From TrEMBL:
This is Peptidoglycan-recognition protein. It comes from the Eukaryota. Disulfide bonds join 24-146, 60-66. The lineage of its organism: Eukaryota, Metazoa, Ecdysozoa, Arthropoda, Hexapoda. Monomer. Residues 1-22 form the signal peptide. InterPro entries: Amidase/PGRP_sf (IPR036505), Amidase_domain (IPR002502), Peptidoglycan_recognition (IPR017331), PGRP (IPR015510), PGRP_domain_met/bac (IPR006619).
Amino acid sequence: MRAKTIITLFAALTCILNSIKADCNVVTKKDWDGLEAVRVNYMARPVDLVIIQHTVSPFCKTDARCAELVRNIQNYHMDTLNLDDIGSNFYVGGNGKIYEGVGWLHVGAHTRGYNSRSIGISFIGNYNNDTPTTEQLDAVKALIKCGVDKGHLIADYHVVGHKQLIATESPGRKLYNKIRSWPQWMQDVSSLKQ
């Protein structure tokens, strides 16, 4: 009887953890054929900061191509940069789908000095050249709303562009121009600087 109870509890806990990991209509790491992390650090949640960036890779429009690019990014991060996993928490394709990176629960490796207190969302493409689609922008807004609803983000979170925190062109001029109109965008980031 006790063994059956333990198995039932283990199954229930596994279901709960999988639902947390794959919530918010995200294409899971398993679904895009991602590798498991070498090591993980858990994020203290909820956080109050969303950092928008771009991958400076080709743009993608199809499910197959977007998944391929996310795999390529993970391979580069793990094999060349020697990271424990893919860098950002989430990736958004030109197909309007969100791809799980390290997800809501784990600390990413996207913005030195801010990883343990933020969610990094990377748009697949180069947004100095590419224009973010309405589908991409709506998908990210829905992801963020879901993050608030699920307790991963605080209700009065802030959105910033990657370049506001470190010396980079990311998220690219065309994407940066879009996020600057979002009501949660934070213009003065001096209070965030360490």
